[in-house]
Amino acid sequence: MAQMELTNLLDTVQETETKMIEMSALNHLMSTHVLQQAQQIQYLYDQAVEATNNVERGNKELSQAIQRNSSSRTFLLLFFFVLTFSVLFLDWYKN
Fold first, then answer.
1. Does residue 20 belong to any structural domain of this protein?
2. Where along the sequence do coiled-coil regions lie (predicted)?
């Protein structure tokens, strides 16, 4: 009877050892996946920071383009104004 109990105890210990090895392997697998996710999160964070910087630079470029457009529009209006009055003056001077 003692031998049967020891055999049962040995089987239980071996089963527990097998389960512990499986749990260790699963724990290692999980930690590997967590590390990969951490790297992906860092990559996404870096991409988000870069995208934010690009948007800020784009906004500055748009502001400069609006200013240039406003300046060129003012210049064109002044040019056409002077041209119109020059033509009117030449027409008046000719008559």
1. yes
2. none
Main-chain phi, psi angles of 79, to 5 degrees? -60, -45
Distance CA 51, CA 3 (A): 71
Distance CA 21, CA 65 (A): 65
> What is the extent of the structural domain holding 24?
9-70
**Domain-embedded: residue 75:** no
pLDDT in tens, 22-50: 999 999 999 999 999 999 999 999 999 99
* This prediction's pTM: 0.58
pLDDT tens digits for range 57-75: 999 999 998 888 878 888 8
